[in-house]
């Protein structure tokens, strides 16, 4: 009996070894995909694009909803980029306990912690602006306003216009295959909600609904689903040319792919949109601080205009700028990519600091595939914090230090750009209304 128990314990240890190994396998897959994260964006740019929606993963929806701020960030060359799409923690993260002034969690009447949205400096800015509106006009119809009230209203309207720039916007995300780039595997198509019902979703849904009723089949089925043909057109708005969807059609019932193995890999891939549309950060600047910088117009950026002098710029934060351009590596730091011998356990690790390290080239990727991305020349070379024009950066997470080339004095100062950048080519987005 005892012997049997012993055996099953051994087996459970073995089983956990297998599952650990599997986990590590999938982690390294994720890391790899991060390096090439741009390839995970589906951004229709060509006149004709073909996209195949994949069946949703268990517990997920066909069309997921997520929230991003669409703001202005600082970019290379001292310019500003409008339409940077930035992850909103308040709308996308789980709620957090509400704390009182002493830092203790507040409890509701049932004694459970009160939960509030995770803090988001950009949502906060939106609220700050809204609070500046004169509330005396509430409930007063425009036609009944006197001259004074009309003036107040005009002021309120202006404030509202500013406030709305900071509001988190709803986006839809669809998981699927870009039939023009099958080698990239599963991609995510992200498009903005449109309050005039003229957005991508409004074009897509009737097509999908029609497919389901005509074919009595799931549009996303690997066996009986359909490829979607997307026809793009140039659309002008406010003096800018945008790529816009002119039409979407269902091509008709087809296999997801001729090769059953390819099909299986695609359907079973467990990548989710959160692996792709991540919170932005910069070296030594975690996502929350990055959002604060965006709100203040001081978002850091990767300066790669001069090929011989690529570096990070942190407006108003020379300390962080210096740090970002001087790589250090601690063997006991908790770098995601830093692995240690399995027998090391919790033993004290010698600490080593190395400066002037040239991180291995990580590969640049663009963050916001669906950016409006007009560029505007910045007022000044070193953007001072401008409260109203929140500059935004598509930032990039710290360049992975893994496999760092460690050299000494002779090292060039080039720090490779992290996973970020601008989508090359034209800017695509839904029309900005
Ligand atoms: Zn937010």
Give a short summary of the structure:
The protein is of the alpha+beta class.
Q: C-alpha Rg, in Å?
A: 25 Å
What is the structural class? Answer: alpha+beta
List unreliable stretches of 5+ residues.
330-335, 346-433
**Overall average pLDDT:** 78
Order of helices and strands: HEEEHEEHHEEHEEHHHEEHE
Count of DSSP E strands? 12
> How many helices?
9
Would you give an account of this structure?
Helix content is 26%, strand content 20%. It has nine helices and twelve strands. The chain has helices at residues 2-35, 89-92, 121-131, 147-165, 200-215, 260-268, 273-276, 287-296, 318-324; strands at 48-53, 63-75, 79-87, 96-97, 115-116, 168-178, 186-192, 226-237, 240-253, 301-303, 311-313, 375-377. Strands 1, 2, 3, 6, 7, 8, 9 and 12 form an eight-stranded antiparallel beta sheet that branches. It has a two-stranded antiparallel sheet with strand order 4-5. It has a two-stranded antiparallel ribbon with strand order 10-11. A hairpin with a 2-residue loop joins strand 8 and strand 9. The chain binds zinc ion. Zinc ion (ZN) is lined by residues 69, 88, 90-91, 120, 122-123, 168.
């Amino acid at each position: 009996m005892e012997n049997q128990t012993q055996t099953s314990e051994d087996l459970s240890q073995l089983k956990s070894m297998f599952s650990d190994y599997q986990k590590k396998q999938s982690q390294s897959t994720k890391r790899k995909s991060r390096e090439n994260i741009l390839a995970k964006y589906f951004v229709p740019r060509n006149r004709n694009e073909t996209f195949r929606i994949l069946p949703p993963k268990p517990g997920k929806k066909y069309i997921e909803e997520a929230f991003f701020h669409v703001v202005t960030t600082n970019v290379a060359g001292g310019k500003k980029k409008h339409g940077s799409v930035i992850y909103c923690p308040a709308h996308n993260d789980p709620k957090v306990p509400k704390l009182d002034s002493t830092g203790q969690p507040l409890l509701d009447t049932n004694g459970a912690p009160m939960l509030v949205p995770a803090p988001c400096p950009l949502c906060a800015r939106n609220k700050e602006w809204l609070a500046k509106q004169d509330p005396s006009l509430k409930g007063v119809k425009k036609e009944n306003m006197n001259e004074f009230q009309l003036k107040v209203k005009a002021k309120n309207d202006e404030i509202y216009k500013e406030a709305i720039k900071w509001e988190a916007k709803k986006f839809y995300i669809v998981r699927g295959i870009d039939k023009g780039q099958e080698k990239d595997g599963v991609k995510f198509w992200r498009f903005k909600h449109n309050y005039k019902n003229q957005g991508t979703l409004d074009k897509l849904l009737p097509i999908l609904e029609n497919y389901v009723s005509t074919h009595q089949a799931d549009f996303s089925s690997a066996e009986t689903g359909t490829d979607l043909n997307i026809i793009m057109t140039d659309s002008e708005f406010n003096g800018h040319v945008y790529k816009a969807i002119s039409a979407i059609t269902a091509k008709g019932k087809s296999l997801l792919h001729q090769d059953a193995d390819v099909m299986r890999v695609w359907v079973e891939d467990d990548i989710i949109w959160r692996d792709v549309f991540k919170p932005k950060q910069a070296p030594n600047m975690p996502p929350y601080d990055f959002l604060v910088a965006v709100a203040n117009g001081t978002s850091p950026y990767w300066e790669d205009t001069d090929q011989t002098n690529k570096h990070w710029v942190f407006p108003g934060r020379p300390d962080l700028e210096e740090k970002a351009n001087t790589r250090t590596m601690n063997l006991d730091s908790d770098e995601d990519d830093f692995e240690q011998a399995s027998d090391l356990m919790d033993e004290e690790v010698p600490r080593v600091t190395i400066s002037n390290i040239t991180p291995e080239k990580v590969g640049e990727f663009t963050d916001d595939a669906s950016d409006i991305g007009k560029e505007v020349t910045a007022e000044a070379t070193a953007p001072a914090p401008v409260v109203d024009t929140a500059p935004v950066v598509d930032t990039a997470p710290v360049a992975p230090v893994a496999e760092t080339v460690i050299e000494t004095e002779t090292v060039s100062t080039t720090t490779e750009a992290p996973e970020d950048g601008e989508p090359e080519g034209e800017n695509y987005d839904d029309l900005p209304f």
